[in-house]
Specification:
Blueprint lengths: L5 E4 L13 E6 L3 E6 L2 E6 L3 E4 L5 E6 L7 E3 L6 E3 L7 E3 L6 E11 L32 H8 L2
Parallel strand pairs: 6-10
Antiparallel strand pairs: 1-2, 1-5, 2-3, 3-4, 6-7, 7-8, 9-10
C-alpha cells in the first residue's frame, strides 16, 4: 500500500511544476519523489513538495510574488482561473465544469523570510589535495602510470 499518492510543490520555483497543481506520485524514496508530469516521470526533492494520501477536492489558491495576479487551480483538470471578485466558498471550473470548494486557508505562494533555511549542502568543500579522511591525497603521476602499464 502506498503512503502518499499526490504531491504539489510547496513554493514555486524552477522545478518545472506548476504552482498549485497536484501530481500523482509514482514512487517515494527517502530524499526524492517521482511524479507523473504531462505523461513523463519527473524526480524532485521530497523537501520541496507537500504529500497527501487522497486526491484533492478543492481549488488551490496561488499567490505569486512579482506583481502577478493571484489565481485558482482546479483540482480536476489543473486549469487556472482568476480569483472570484468576492469571497465565495465554491466555484465551478469553466473547463471541466466541476464545482469544488476553495481552500482559502491553504494558499500556495512565496515563502516568508523566516521559513527559508540556508542551503547547507555545499558549505564544506574539501581542497583538491586533501582526501576525505583529511590526509594528503596521493595521485598517480603519468610516469607512475606508465611504469605500471609497461611491464
Amino acid at each position: 500500500m502506498r503512503l502518499a499518492q499526490w504531491a504539489r510543490v510547496r513554493t514555486p520555483g524552477r522545478t518545472g511544476l506548476r504552482a498549485g497543481a497536484w501530481y500523482s506520485v509514482v514512487a517515494l524514496t527517502a530524499r526524492d519523489v517521482h511524479l507523473v508530469v504531462r505523461g513523463r516521470a519527473v524526480t524532485i526533492s521530497r523537501a520541496l513538495v507537500e504529500l497527501r494520501d487522497t486526491p484533492p477536492h478543492e481549488w488551490t489558491v496561488v499567490r505569486l510574488p512579482g506583481g502577478s495576479d493571484p489565481y485558482l487551480v482546479c483540482p480536476g483538470c489543473r486549469h487556472r482561473t482568476p480569483l472570484p471578485e468576492r469571497h465565495v466558498n465554491t466555484t465551478r471550473c469553466p473547463r471541466c465544469n466541476g464545482a469544488f470548494a476553495i481552500a482559502w486557508g491553504h494558499a500556495v505562494g512565496a515563502p516568508r523570510v523566516q521559513e527559508l533555511e540556508p542551503d547547507r549542502r555545499l558549505t564544506r568543500r574539501r581542497k583538491s589535495d586533501v582526501s576525505r579522511n583529511g590526509e594528503p591525497e596521493r595521485r598517480a603521476t603519468p610516469e607512475r602510470r606508465h611504469r605500471a602499464t609497461s611491464w
